[in-house]
Amino acid sequence: MDQIAYRWYILFPNHHQGLQLNRELRKANIRNQISPTPREASSCCGISLIVEPDDLDRIGKIIEEYGISIDKIVKLPVKTDWQYRGI
Amino acid sequence: MADYRQMWTDLGMDLEKHDVLCEVLPDAFGGVFLSQQNRPAGMDFYDFVVSEIHGVRPAELIEHRQKGGKVFGTFCVYVPDEVVFAAGGIAAGLCGGSQFWVSGGEKVLPVNTCPLIKASVGARLDKTCPFFMIADMFVGETTCDGKKKAWEILSKEVPLHVIDVPQMKRDKDIAAFESEIKDFIKVVEGVTGNQVTPEKLGEAIKLINNKRRALQRLYNARKASPVPISGKDALLVTQIAFYDDPARCAQMANRLAEELEERISRGEGVFPADAPRIMISGTPMAIPNWKLHHIVETAGAAVVVEESCTGTRYFEHLVDESGQTIDEQVRALAERYMQTNCACFTPNPGRIEDIIRMADEYKVDGVIDVNLQFCNLYSTESYLVKNTLAEHNIPIMHIETDYSEQDYEQLRTRIEAFLEMVRK
Ligand code: SF4
Ligand code: SF4
């Protein structure tokens, strides 16, 4: 049984693409959350979008429709053990 | 992915050290912010700024410099940004809020210096913050002893101008501050090569006032019950306001406030209407210091207002816009800035009056008066805050803390006990 919860991150070549997809998804009422890109997904920091796996098909269509370029989509386990630390 | 490494190398940054910071940011931001429910859509912009925290805004500042513009780094809300913008410069608040920078500061400062000062010095000496590397000039002030001495150390690194902020608020002190602003105008004119004309200063006064109005509007929305935005999110807005472009800051804060006003009309909030409403008063919380808000809000209470420089002290009071001459405008600036109530003044009854007034305005159930470790001014003033609030039957607790997670569990226990008492 798969007990681990996952998050799906969309990564972009630059922030303009990320912001554009964020706007289009908002307009289409598709849940998405701007997030700093986790290290596990890429060694470069910068914006990525967390989306729901059920929406990936619709999101794919929007990406195509608006010609938004993305780097990749990464699935990462949700960290449930995060403890506050001073950064 | 956006790759800012070339830009950071060109700025002379220590990429290896900086990388450690980049590595922890996503998890911390996820843990503190993205774990919240029902965040306003207007937070998208601020989440974006944090996601690109050492990329997008630094790149804008570098572009400004490439066109011949100058950047001034500031560390206190008494520094009149209006003067810098009037001369075509950009002012950016640089206060260090990261534990990551503290050890760099401790290499040159006494360990018993407040973490804000240690982090600010460490960020520059360790070369791990692009903003500290971009600034053409740092602007210090004579507010507290720790800062006064830190300027002498930082001035070996970057040209530094110190504004003499009075320690009392008599008429002659306001007049003295007026003359300090005039000296500052000359310094800024010298660095930028641009003259501060009455037209330009008038425009800059309006620009910064508009930013203040937008932030005031946002904070007004926090007076509603249930509260439509978390304290963490509101704090993030104020923290980013310190270095964002002022016009964009106003635009984004207004947009967010509009969304919050819609939430209020629907009776929609991010905490239940009966959740305790907490004011945090005291020393500033520079980005990315989100510790106390995280403790309070994960314990089920809402932070509804900050009486601090990363809160109301930043945007309360507007500068009179009617001045036609430099003399009139500078007088208006001095009068506005000297209304700010920092513990570096003696006596400072205005701050406690502000706390009592805002406790009523924001329908606060309890006040957490906090000071950064080794901040003698706010720590001493906490005695008066505590006594006066007790006289007004406002529940209050005092906390002294730093940026680290060392005292996290201990603070959580104390705050939970306080909230328990407030709930009764
Ligand atoms: S607490 Fe006082 S010294 Fe510190 S930023 Fe605010 S006004 Fe300046
Ligand atoms: S928190 Fe206190 S000690 Fe630290 S910089 Fe501000 S006034 Fe100075």
Strand line-up across the major sheet of chain A: 2-3-1-4
Biggest interface, chains and residues, is: A-B, 31 and 42 residues
Identify the bound ligands.
iron/sulfur cluster
Portion of residues in helices of chain A? Answer: 25-40%
How far apart the termini of chain A lie comes to 36 Å
Overall, the morphology of chain B is globular
Rg of chain B to the nearest angstrom? 21 Å
Can you describe this structure?
The complex is a heterodimer of chains A (87) and B (424). Chain A has 87 residues and is α+β, with helices and mostly antiparallel strands. Chain A has one domain: Alpha-Beta Plaits (2-Layer Sandwich), CATH 3.30.70. Helix content of chain A is 26%, strand content 25%. Chain A has helices at residues 15-27, 56-65; strands spanning 6-11, 32-36, 47-51, 72-77. Chain A has a 4-stranded antiparallel beta sheet, covered by helices on one side. In chain A, 32% of the residues are buried. The mean pLDDT of chain A is 91. The longest helix of chain B is centred in the middle third of the chain and has 24 residues, at 198-221. The relative contact order of chain B is 0.12. Chain B is globular. Chain B has 424 residues and is of the alpha/beta class. The model of chain B has no long low-confidence stretch (mean pLDDT 97). In chain B, 54% of the residues lie in helices and 10% in strands. Chain B has one domain (5-422). Chain B has helices spanning 5-10, 15-34, 44-51, 56-66, 81-86, 102-106, 115-125, 130-134, 145-154, 171-192, 198-221, 231-241, 246-266, 291-298, 312-315, 326-337, 349-361, 376-391, 408-423, and strands spanning 71-74, 90-93, 137-141, 160-163, 277-282, 302-307, 366-372, 396-401. The A-B interface holds A 11-15, 18-19, 22, 26, 33-39, 42, 44-48, 50, 71, 79, 82-87 and B 1-5, 21-32, 34, 41, 44, 47-48, 50-56, 98-100, 288-289, 291, 294-295, 402-405, 408.
Features:
heterodimer; A: 87 residues; alpha+beta; four-stranded antiparallel beta sheet; 2 helices; globular; B: 424 residues; alpha/beta; four-stranded parallel beta sheet; 10% strand; binds iron/sulfur cluster
